[in-house]
Amino acid sequence: MGKAGERLTRAELEARLDRTYRLLEIGRAINAETDLDRLLQVVIAETTRLMGADRSSLFLLDRERGELWSRMAEGMESREIRFPMHLGIAGHVASTGETINIPDAYQDPRFNPEVDKKTGYRTHSILTMAMKNKLGEILGVFQCLNKEEGAFNQEDERLLQSLASQTAIAIENAQLYEEQKKQFNSIIEVLASSIDARDPYTAGHSQRVMEYTLGTAEEMNFSRKGLETLRLASLLHDYGKIGVHDSILRKPGILTAEEYRAIQEHVVKTKEILENLYFSQDLKEIPSIASFHHERIDGTGYPFHLHGSEIPLGGKIMAVADVFDALTSHRPYRNPSSPEEAFAILDQGIGSHFDGEVVVAFKRYFFQRREGGRRIEEAPETE
Fold first, then answer.
1. Is 69 helix (H, G, I), strand (E, B) or coil?
2. For residue 121, is it within any domain?
3. Which of 29, 260, 327, 349 could form an S-S bond across to 337 if both were Cys, CB 3.0 to 4.6 Å?
4. Among 212, 214, 211, 192, which Cα is nearest to 203's?
């Protein structure tokens, strides 16, 4: 409650309680966020409001490069700022762990006015504080500029210290999650490329099907989680081909009926293999979604002979993406179709093979991508 003997008015007490409540709410919000970019944006915005500042920045320490960096600084156009960790007030705090509270920036020799000159911004008060983890190691630096009423005081320092402690935990969790996600994605990409590598005629097929699938799903307003499920399912949709003999998989001519049945079995094998992989709860549908890309609206597809609404929308999208890529890719027994020829075949299959709304969404995506040069590498992080 502050210094010993400090007497607070009712208004001051209510203000402190309000800030404490807001601090708890911010803690809940940042601890629920695992994406580092979004976490930094939330922290910066909430810090500005909580501290009653005009703007705030959070610089993270990159020890390998000896730099401080920020992916998002409020009020500035650049999405990433980097500078040597020993420069400026932020650099001094990052190096020493000292808290610097400056009521009048232009009266303090440590302040560099060059940034103000370049941006047209006028800095008055500055509160800069190190953010440390549980081991006392400095992870980064908070910097708040221009308190709305007066200068930053000791209560502001205590409040920012509490926020910094909570943020340090959230950032370490987000960084760990990001590393685990990168590792997981690299394994998935290796699995997908191992299938494409077995057959030179289908090299790049999984990547293109993933790209077409995500582009179409975006047009159909899939959620971020839905897009991530489709990204992984489409990358792995042919993984069951690992169980198909090379003499069939690489056969340059038309397949016999028996060979074709062996090829069809890859869908079941895909599902069986993927069901033996561990997926988090929000990705549990991947094995099933990956096995629906050869189903048809009229029920004549395989392996489950599903009809219409029995086929999940993701499976319907992958069916269009898979056929379009097969049609427009070179095969030893035929030349690739043009996009226009492939679209005509997709149109003919509406109602029997394909869902009409999916075909329309795919066309919309395809022309936008081709005309705008857009390329989708990964599921976007929008809800």
1. strand
2. yes
3. 327
4. 192
SS3 56: strand
H/E segment holding residue 81 = strand 81-84
Last residue of a domain, one of 176, 209, 237: 176
Tell me: do 225 and 360 sit in the same domain.
yes
**Token pair listed for 54:** 């005009």
Six-digit token pair at 186? 């690299």
Domain that holds residue 96: 10-176
Buried b (16+ CB within 10 A) or exposed e, 237-263: bbbbbeebeeebbebeeeeeeebeebb
Catalytic positions are 241
CA 371 to chain centroid? 25
Any idea what the CATH number is for the domain that residue 261 is in? 1.10.3210.10
The pLDDT tens digits for 230-244 are 999 999 999 988 888
Predicted local distance difference test score (pLDDT) of residue 41 = 83
Residues 210 and 281 in one domain: yes
Q: Bridge partners of 83? A: 68
- Rounded distance between C-alpha atoms, residue 235 and residue 45, angstroms: 36
Last residue of a domain, one of 125, 142, 176: 176
Question: Is 0.90 topped by the overall pTM?
Answer: no
Pick from 292, 296, 201, 287: nearest CA to 246? 201
Mean pLDDT confidence for 366-373: 71
Is 5 among the domain residues? no
* pLDDT tens per residue, range 60-119: 999 889 889 886 544 444 467 788 888 889 999 999 999 999 999 999 888 888 878 887
Q: Is 57 helix (H, G, I), strand (E, B) or coil?
A: strand
How many structural domains comprise the chain? 2
Please give the distance of CA 210 from its chain centroid, rounded to a whole number.
16
Find the largest Cα–Cα distance for the chain. 92
